[in-house]
Amino acid sequence: MKTLLVIDAQNDFMPGGSLAVPNGNKIVPVINSIQDTFDLIVATQDWHPKAHSSFAINHDGKSDFEKIEWRGKMQTLWPEHCIQGSKGAKLHPELNTTKYEAIFRKGTDKNIDSYSAFYDNNHLKPTGLTGYLKEKGASQLYFCGLASDICVYFSICDAIKEGFECFFIEDASKALDIEAFENIKTKMIAMGVHMITSASL
Ligand code: VGL
Ligand code: ZN
């Protein structure tokens, strides 16, 4: 079953938001235009409490985008973003969410960050998305959203591990770090991810 996963298409990741992805808003009309070709659509929201440990402001003397060692892993410290219930955490107002069957929220525990839609960054707790998709009969997962070098990429890595066939819709995603993304694209191709554009749907 052909399933679309719309990752973190939230105001804070759009131009004007607190962790803006360049041209992030350009994906909205593209996503709207392809939705009718899917059997199932699921969205995710980054959904942090104000005290979330991924925010630089919650670490004394640390600045935005600094990296620290945290629970044995390197963690980038971000500006405050996608605070539970805030306008910045809402999906883009022009995104047509009518057909969305479920919205999975992640990053809700203040001590754990979760880039992937499936697991937290330490792979300790599943979000339940794998079970949901498997029970629904989803087999081919098409990924779009923000940011392609972070949450979309880590979601795809887990989806491949969980045995789904994965497609990355290039023009329906934008990267935070465009240079880093070139490297990530090579990794995704090596993992067996199909790189497609919206025109082929
Ligand atoms: C994201 C950084 C921090 C994303 C979420 O959705 O790509 N990036 N939290
Ligand atoms: Zn986040």
Count of distinct strands: 8
Q: Can you write the helix and strand succession as a string?
A: EHEEEEHEHEHE
Poorly predicted spans: none
> Which homologous superfamily in CATH is the superfamily?
Isochorismatase-like
- Bound heterogens, unique: pyrazine-2-carboxylic acid, zinc ion
Shape: globular
- The average pLDDT value, as a whole number, equals 96
Question: What would your notes on this structure say?
Answer:
The chain is α/β, with parallel strands linked by helices. The protein has 4 helices and 8 strands. The model has no long low-confidence stretch (mean pLDDT 96). The chain binds pyrazine-2-carboxylic acid (VGL) and zinc ion. The site of pyrazine-2-carboxylic acid has 8 residues, from loops.
Summary tags:
binds pyrazine-2-carboxylic acid; globular; Rossmann fold; binds zinc ion; 4 helices; alpha/beta
